[in-house]
Amino acid sequence: MAISDEKYVSSTTFRKSGATVSTPTWIVPLDAGRVGFWTSSASGKYKRLRNDPRITLQPSDSRGRVKGGSPSVAGAVQLVTSGTDFDAIQGKVRAKYGVMVPVSRFFNTLGHIGKGKFPYADVGVIITPADQS
Fold it and tell me: Which residue of 30, 53, 55, 111 could cross-link 34, Cys pair, CB 3.0 to 4.6 Å?
């Protein structure tokens, strides 16, 4: 089973200190063996990926708890805010996750009330697995 067939993956990114941070993430297939997801330009995940493009993906549940014995996929990230790959991620996430997209957006908005504007899904994250780079 390909990592993009999973409903959720635990995406592990790296702080400047080298410490890892894992978060549950939706995932979609892209062309040429790449996979992708979206994030916010105001998120910690985006800031960590901007500073260090390494990422590790592993199948998980919606809370980010890794599935026991599942393989991890290491890769390098490219961040995009427009273009063909960005549009592909937007369309494929909406197609795969359907009604969960507006529900997720609603809870994102609710969680940031009083904290100022927090963009939703304005950055596409493209992962090229290490064995394909």
Answer: 30
